[in-house]
Design goal:
Layout lengths: L1 E6 L8 H16 L4 E6 L10 H11 L6 H18 L3 E7 L7 H10 L6 E3 L5 E3 L5 E7 L15 H13 L3 E7 L6 H21 L23
Parallel strand pairs: 1-2, 1-3, 3-6, 6-7
Antiparallel strand pairs: 4-5
Bound molecules: flavin mononucleotide (FMN).
C-alpha cells in the first residue's frame, strides 16, 4: 500500500497543518506495517513550467492528437510527475488555507498533473471521463480563521470545495477532510482546534478501511460530470 504525501506548506517544523498530518501518518503506520510513504514537498520542488512547449502539448492532447518529437522532451518531465502521482493508492494533502484557497505551489502541481489522457479523458461525445479510479484521499488543512459550517465565513472556503471538485473530476471521490481551525485568533482557540484535529486524524487513520479497492472498468459515470473542458 503506497501513500503519497503532498506537502503544500513552507513552514516545515512550525507548521500547524503538518502537526496534524504527522499524527495521521503515525497512526496509519502503526496500523499498516506494509505502508510505504512517498513525499512530494512542493515548496522544495522544481516543477516544470506549464507554458511554452508544455502548454502546446496540453492543447495538442486536448484535441486528441499525439505530441510530436520536439515537444516530447519537456513533456517527459510532466509525465514523471503524473506517473509518480498515479503510483499511489492513497493521497495525503497537507495544505494551509491561503487567501481562501490553496497555496500557489499546490495549484501549480495540480496544473501539472491534471492532464487529458492521463488522469481523465474525453469520450466520443466530448464529455470528460475520470481515469483516476480506486484511490483514496485525505486532505488535512489548517486555517487562520474559522470557516466551519456554523461560521459566517463558511462560504469563503474555496479550499475544500476546490479540492473536492478537481480531484472528484479526475475520479478521486473517496475524500476525507480534517480542517484545523481557527489557528490565528487566540492561543487557546488554536490549542483546542489542534487537539480536536489530532483526535480526528488518529481516529480516521485507525478506524477507516485503507486497503486499495481495485477499480472496475466501466464504473466511471461521465453523465455525473458537467461536459466542460479543462
Ligand atoms: C499567504 C498566506 C495567506 C493566508 N490566507 C489565509 C486565509 O485566506 N484565511 C485564513 O483563515 N488564514 C489564512 N492564512 C493563515 C494560515 O492559513 C494559517 O496560519 C495556517 O494554519 C498555516 O498553516 P501552516 O502552519 O501549516 O503553514 C494565510 C497565511 C498565509 C501565509
Amino acid at each position: 500500500m503506497k501513500l503519497l504525501h503532498i506537502i503544500a506548506t513552507p513552514r516545515e517544523h512550525e507548521s500547524n497543518t503538518l502537526k496534524v498530518a504527522n499524527a495521521f501518518l503515525d497512526s496509519l503506520r502503526a496500523k499498516h506495517t506494509d505502508l510505504r510513504v512517498d513525499v512530494i514537498d512542493l515548496f522544495n520542488q522544481d516543477l516544470s513550467a506549464v507554458a511554452g512547449d508544455n502548454i502546446d502539448s496540453k492543447y495538442t492532447l486536448m484535441a486528441g492528437q499525439p505530441i510530436d518529437k520536439q515537444h516530447k522532451e519537456a513533456w517527459a518531465q510532466i509525465e514523471v510527475l503524473i506517473t509518480h502521482f498515479l503510483s499511489a493508492d492513497i493521497y495525503l494533502i497537507s495544505t494551509p488555507m491561503w487567501n481562501f484557497s490553496i497555496p500557489y505551489v499546490l495549484k501549480y502541481y495540480i496544473d501539472s498533473i491534471v492532464q487529458p489522457g492521463y488522469l481523465y479523458k474525453y469520450n466520443e461525445q466530448g464529455q470528460p471521463v475520470p481515469l483516476t479510479l480506486g484511490k483514496k484521499m485525505v486532505c488535512i488543512t489548517s486555517r487562520g480563521g474559522d470557516y466551519s459550517e456554523h461560521s459566517p465565513f463558511h462560504a469563503y472556503d474555496f479550499q475544500e470545495t476546490y479540492l473536492r471538485a478537481i480531484f472528484g473530476f479526475v475520479g478521486i471521490t473517496d475524500m476525507q477532510f480534517i480542517n484545523a481551525q481557527p489557528m490565528d485568533v487566540t492561543l487557546e482557540l488554536r490549542q483546542a482546534a489542534i487537539a480536536s484535529a489530532l483526535e480526528k486524524a488518529r481516529d480516521l487513520a485507525t478506524n477507516s478501511e485503507w486497503q486499495a479497492v481495485q477499480p472496475v472498468a466501466g464504473t466511471e459515470n461521465p453523465a455525473e460530470l458537467k461536459p466542460h473542458r479543462l
